[in-house]
Amino acid sequence: MYRISCFILFDTRFSPAFVPEIKGTGRYEDLRMEKRYLQLLAREYPNRQAALCEIANLTAMSSLPKGTEYFFSDLHGEHKGFSELMNGASGVIREKIRIQFQDVLTNPQQNQLANLIYDPVKVLMHQTKYLNWIINQIGRDTNEWMKNTIFYLTQLCRSVSAKYSRVHVRSKIPHEYDYLMEELLYPGQDEGRLEYGSSIIEAVVSSGLADTFIPQFCKLIRSLTMDWIHVIGDIFDRGPRPDRIMEELIEYGDVDIQWGNHDISWMGAACGNRVLIANVVRMGISYNNFDCLEDGYGINLRPLSDFASEVYRDDLCERFLPKVLDENVYDKVAKSLSAKMHKAMAIIQLKLIGQMVHRHPEYHMEDRNLLEHIDYEKGLYKYNGITCPLTDTNFPTVDPQNPLELTQKEAQLMDVLAASFAHSEALQRHVRFLYSSGSMYLCMNGNLLFHGCIPMNEDGSFERVEVDGEKYAGRALLDRLERAAREAYFLPKDHPDKQKNVDKMWLLWCSAQSPLFGKSRMSAFERYFTKEKALHEEVYNSYYRLSADSHVCEQILKEFGVDPVHGHIINGHVPVRQKDGENPVKADGKLYVIDGGLSKAYQAKTGIAGYTLIFNSHYLALAQHHDYISHPLSKPESDDMPTLQITQKMDKRILVSDTDAGKKLSQRIEELHLLVKAYENGSFVERAIAAYPKTTPSLHMETMEIVR
Q1: Residues pairing with 255 in the sheet
Q2: pLDDT of 640-661, one tens digit each?
Q3: Burial readout 483-511 (b: 16 or more C-beta within 10 A, e: otherwise)
């Protein structure tokens, strides 16, 4: 997209005569900043006509309906499930088909169209079987089906694009088909134009373009249905390919992420935190997810394999057998070797955790120093008045006199792994995206988004947490911890604060005072080595209980500057046990907990495959996911889309002007009016636009970004 500023010459003179005009507005405190800002604005709008034209454009855009926001949480590497939800817009496309064609198509035909939009390439690759089914059902040949299909896609695309400007729709159309698709979408009512549209469809089919045209049309519909995506934490771990989810999010672009503790763990590993390097490797192996580590991120696991095979040669490592869920059952690494590698990393991580605890007594996490509380002669674990036998007493690399010291081979192994993480181009690119598009929390359009909790005391007050000698609570705590997370990655290696912030990434991963975790302990290692239930218990922060009270939610919303009357808190982290009757909507509609178990590891507990929260111009709705399966091509009429439940209808349709983006547009309009006044009173000299291309849209890229 072109920018006007590329085609103008600008006179930087600024008249003192304009100063009282601006000063009277009370919008600017520093006149120098006023001057500089208006100079920059005039570079894009070099004369009164250009500014007035943009005012008209932005005013028109403000009257459009609000785009649809989608809220996902706790994806946990389930790339296939996430792709299905993305492609089907969590059931919204199916619902729009029902509304559009309920009097034209049967339910099986509607499902057929939805499935085609969901995965057109797969369908058309198997079109013989697929079209045979169609011919048997409706008695028409292939070409006739393709013509009808393009017609239906056109009608549906007109419906989903109605809330957007033509400029926005044009930006989404594939370049190779921009003319054909735009002509179909905006046909006009003249009879000749209608015949023209039919001739375009006829030409596409007769020329053999349908096999590529239809998938591109389906892609356009999908992209226009989902305006913005929020991912409320935990993209990584458990599921097989979080790296593919990251690639899909990067490609989509219109996305923000509220970090979860599993995301922070990988971000910390990319920063060089060796505890977290050991952690993500251990967790990957524990779920038999070697593809993500080796193929996705190029992590060299051969030294670990060799080390584990040698050290634990005669150890069955039965408590460390990997969890085999679905597709990872066919992983090429033998279970016996995976178990040895798993145990090797667990012991190394325990040593590194103990070192971290000693290095930072201010973390108050002595209970995580498991190895120094073991009686190695008797095979007992002793801590805080509890003594229990160990389920595994084979520690060939642990020196009872100095249990936290890495052996030479363990140290060499960690050096290799650290180098792999540091030099993984794919991982570093994904982590940079997590930083650029992510944050600890987000306030947007009346909603407060965060992954875990806001640490609270039993009395409902915000818990004060010490960070570098200062205490923080509520919003200030999350802001301070976000700063630490960013400095961990972006500070130069030789900066004096670099390492302490890198260490804090482990704190964010598993501390009781971490807003991303918020439980008394992460008892994974106690579960490895003991059967004592008291040691397995993980006590939740008071937030998780108190947040069911609408008054507490209002208090939290106020703390973050969100309207407590109409606002909502949206978070994940804790799976909603739907099969036990638990409701994801809590606190009289103030709180939405949308971790419903997209991860297969949790579906036995939740009874479903997670939730998507959908916020459009008419309502808030929850899409309840079924246990996703690949759409069977032998039954293209099948319906596997999520169940949609409207939870709140809006009193009136929400327009762009009602959103945060609308406020920015309104501010821009006010600024442009000031610029117009400056041109009118001669404070700024108008300039012509030289060589302005006729194809240049009137809306600028930054404005598009605001609206989207």
Answers
A1: 229
A2: 667 778 999 999 999 999 999 9
A3: ebbebbbebeeeeeebbebbbbbbbbbbb
Q: List, for residues 441-453, the tens digit of each pLDDT value.
A: 999 999 999 999 9
- Give all strands of the β-sheet with 619-624 in edge-to-edge order: 438-439, 255-258, 228-231, 69-72, 611-615, 619-624, 643-649
* 3-class SS letters over 658-707: HCHHHHHHHHHHHHHHHHHHHHHCCCCCCCCCCCCCCCCCCCCHHHHHHH
DSSP characters over 602-656: GHHHHSS--EEEEE-SSEEEEEEPP---PPPTT-TT---PPEEEEEEE-SSPPBG
Edge-to-edge strand ranges of the sheet holding 380-383:
374-375, 380-383, 386-389
Give how far Cα 151 sits from Cα of 111, 120, 204, Å.
16, 15, 12
**The pLDDT of residue 191:** 62
Q: Tell me if the pTM is above 0.85.
A: yes
Strands 591-593 and 568-571: parallel
Report pLDDT for 25. 47
Once rounded to an integer, what is the mean pLDDT over residues 457-464?
Answer: 96
Taking the C-alpha atoms of residue 656 and residue 636, their distance in angstroms, rounded to an integer, is: 37
Gap between the Cα atoms of 450 and 407, Å rounded: 40
Nearest by Cα to 163 from 70, 95, 57, 67: 67
Residue type, 555: Q
Q: Which residues contact 349 (CB under 8 A, 6 or more apart)?
A: 275, 278, 279, 282
Residue 311, pLDDT > 90, answer yes
**How does pLDDT run across 251-293, given as a tens digit for each residue?**
988 999 999 999 999 999 999 999 999 999 999 999 999 999 9
pLDDT in tens, 657-676: 999 999 999 999 999 998 99
**Half-sphere exposure in the Cβ direction for 283 (13 Å, CA):** 21
Q: What is the pLDDT of residue 1?
A: 32
- At 453, the amino acid letter reads C
Number of neighbours of residue 402 by Cβ within 10 angstroms = 10
CA 228 – CA 354 distance, rounded (Å) = 42
The answer to whether 441 touches 560, Cβ cutoff 8 Å, is yes
State residue 14 phi and psi, 5-degree precision: -135, 120
**Which residues share a beta bridge with 375?**
380
CA torsion, ordered 317, 322, 323, 324, to nearest 10 deg: -130
Asked if 356 contacts 503 with a C-beta cutoff of 8 angstroms, the reply is yes
Looking at residues 27-39, what average pLDDT do you find? 66
What is 550-587 written as a DSSP string?
HHHHHHHHHHTT--TTT-EEEE-SS---GGGT--SEEG
- The answer to whether the beta carbons of residues 267 and 438 sit under 8 Å apart is no
Task: Tell me the one-letter amino acid at 122.
Answer: K
Q: How far apart are CA 136 and CA 129, in angstroms?
A: 11
Residue with the bigger pLDDT between 325 and 399: it is 399
∠ CA 631-634-636, rounded to 5°: 55
What are the structure tokens assigned to 582, written together?
């638990």
